[in-house]
């Protein structure tokens, strides 16, 4: 698998299936981060997760980076099918806040079948009731939208269900937006996302299914 990183990525990506059992609320935030990192599916993502949690910043060599600010692009290919599963991500103003379950990253990923999937990762465990996570978002001065998104297998991300268009339509406006997640305890956490116009061509590439 070919992977090129442009910024340290704390990415928790899982398939939309069963609900994970709630974690012990007395567990220190650092332990929750460690559990989330251990569930990363590749060595590169797992290392990036630990680096973010510990505040490690590598010295940048003179080699040119593919992006700077705004949308960050990661190119990758499925080892077995050779299908393009590249993705872009956008960090929120609460990314890396280990003392909160606030939204951390917005990720759009090519699904290898000519389409794309959208999900928002959290800084910690969100959980869900009946595998659905209540979310609310608002682009610019538009009206707020409330929806129920799907839960990732490890309970740390909310996936946009297929057929839901309000969020995708909001992305097309390139406006800054606020995103709120309600966890399994009923606690609400929100974060702001901006810079949607920076490196927007990378977003368009992924939205097109990486075709």
Structure description:
With 211 residues, the chain is α+β, with helices and mostly antiparallel strands. The protein has a single domain (29-207), classed as Sandwich (Immunoglobulin-like), CATH 2.60.40. The protein is built from 4 helices and 9 strands. It has helices spanning 29-38, 43-54, 166-172, 200-207, and strands at residues 72-74, 87-91, 103-110, 116-122, 132-139, 145-151, 157-159, 177-182, 188-193. Strands 1-2-3-4-7-6-5-8-9 form a 9-stranded antiparallel β-sheet. Strand 8 (177-182) and strand 9 (188-193) form a beta hairpin. Helix 1 runs antiparallel to helix 2. The longest helix has 12 residues, at 43-54. The two termini are 18 Å apart. Mean pLDDT is 80; it is low at 1-21 and 60-68.
Q: Structural class per helix/strand content?
A: alpha+beta
Low-confidence stretches: 1-21, 60-68
- Radius of gyration of CA atoms, rounded to a whole number: 16 Å
Overall pLDDT metric: 80
- Helix residue percentage: 10-25%
Can you tell me the number of structural domains?
1
Q: What is the CATH architecture term?
A: Sandwich
Shape: globular
Spell out the helices and strands N to C.
HHEEEEEEEHEEH
CATH topology: Immunoglobulin-like
Largest sheet: 9 strands, antiparallel
The CATH first-level class comes to Mainly Beta
- Residue share in β-strands: 25-35%
Trace the largest sheet across and list its strands: 1-2-3-4-7-6-5-8-9
CATH superfamily grouping: Invasion associated locus B (IalB) protein
Number of helices: 4
Counting DSSP E segments of at least 2 residues, the number of strands comes to: 9
How far is the first residue's CA from the last residue's CA?
A: 18 Å
């Amino acid at each position: 698998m070919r992977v090129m990183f442009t910024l340290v990525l704390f990415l928790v990506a899982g398939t939309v299936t069963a609900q994970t059992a709630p974690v012990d609320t007395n567990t220190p935030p650092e332990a929750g981060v460690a559990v989330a990192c251990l569930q990363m599916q590749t060595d590169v993502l797992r290392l990036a997760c630990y680096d973010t949690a510990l505040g490690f910043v590598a010295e940048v060599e003179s080699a040119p980076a593919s992006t700077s600010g705004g949308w960050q692009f990661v190119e990758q290919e499925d080892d077995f099918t050779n299908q393009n599963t590249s993705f872009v991500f956008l960090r929120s103003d609460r990314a890396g806040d280990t003392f909160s379950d606030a939204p951390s990253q917005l990720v759009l990923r090519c699904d290898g079948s000519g389409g794309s999937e959208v999900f928002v990762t959290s800084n910690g465990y969100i959980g869900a009731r009946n595998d659905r996570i209540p979310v609310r978002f608002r682009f610019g001065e538009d009206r707020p939208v409330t929806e129920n998104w799907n839960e990732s297998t490890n309970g740390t991300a909310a996936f946009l269900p297929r057929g839901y268009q309000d969020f995708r339509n909001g992305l097309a406006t390139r406006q800054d937006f606020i995103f709120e997640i309600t966890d399994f305890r009923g606690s609400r956490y929100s974060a702001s996302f901006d810079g949607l116009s920076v490196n927007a061509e990378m977003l368009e590439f992924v939205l097109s299914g990486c075709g």
